[in-house]
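Quick start: what a row looks like.
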Amino acid sequence: MLTTTTLERLLSISLARGGDYADVFCERRLSTAFRLQDGRIHEGAFVVTQGVGVRVVVGESAGYGFSDDLSAAALERAARTASLIAHAYNEGARSMNVTSSRVLPLYDETRSTHAASEAYVGLLERADVAARRYDSTVIAVNASVSDELQDVWIATSDGKCVHDHRPLVTLGVQVISKRDGERGNGYAGDGGRTSIAFYDQRTPESIALEAAAISQTNAHAIPCPAGEMEMIVGAGGGGVLLHEAVGHGLESDFNRQGVSLYSGRVGEPVASELVTIYDDGNLPHERGSLSVDDEGNPGSHNVLVERGVLRGYMQDYMNGRLMGVGSNGHGRRQSFRVLPQPRMCNTYMPNGESEVDEIIRSTKRGLFAKSFAGGQVEISKGDFVFMVAEGYLVENGKVTSPVRNATIVGNGPEAMTRVVAVGNDGRLANRHYTCGKGGQYVPVGVGMPTVKISSITVGGSNVG
């Protein structure tokens, strides 16, 4: 996107007033998306985004300038802006040299174009037909597909220059059913860092039928009873609970600032000894994976919690440097317009030893939350509220009635100490999750095996 000479000049200008470190982040993103509603295409878009951001780090602060104008004058102005904001002392110009290096690709680097528009529309039409054929009670189908090709080039003042070509496809289907006056909503989706050829195997029909089945279940669900009860968290999609209730609290900025409940607790027990939590940025084709993060560091396997003991945090460059441990590949940003932050990639819990049937049989009265629709978490306390997208009662060791309007209320670290069983059916979720933090949104992966928590507060519309 820019020549080596231009990158070196921008780095030199950015550090002309001094500074500990500087980097240049160049981005070109080509995105296409279509949305189907009421049996026809309602939206179609093709978007090109490109620009350059320049960062200068001084101590615990950073100056940042960016430009979507790629002229030499505009880029140099962005570099000088970053230098001025950083408030460094006047040191004079530095000579910069960067050397390009190749990174290990985790996804297809050869795809440089999108498919024809008809191919994306065809996927949505197939999903619509399949969902409506599922049952006569289906009253609405909404579907969307997106395909993104993002290229990033990152040059740093310590001489590094890397490029990453990142594909990302997403297909999601929402189905609404109506039975006996009650509506049920179901959603399913899949995708990752691949191409729409992915949907030759994971077909739009299979995604639509999964969403339709969930909507049917929710249409005849009973009001959820409220109170304290056992909870079984479903494999895959249940990982949203892990991501929100625990994962954010393990990002390094919250811990360096001392606002997380996990601050200063590395080496201490923070969960049941059955709990191990990883975050990986290097899983091939997964939604949250990165050959290099947005600071040029390789995605890696990070052990956050091991058998209940806190082992470390997710680090970007700045927080890792200030905490004396360095980056472990978690510097992420939404676009060239914003500074990177420490963020999750693919957060999950590995397999345990329990059979799922055994976990269900051991539950006398509980809620089986197969997936979640969203929620809120307070990082400083770990308190959370989650809405259950698909849930069932478990009574005397058997899964019985589906329930609606279920919420769970609790505390993330406390819930992790109450884990009494971990299943052997772990997987990452087949959903396209996007994580928000500080006004920025990035794609992530979540996952876990079936997990049993001994006690949780369940909110519902039926006291029982």
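That is the whole record. Residues 117-134 form the longest helix (18 residues). The mean pLDDT is 92.
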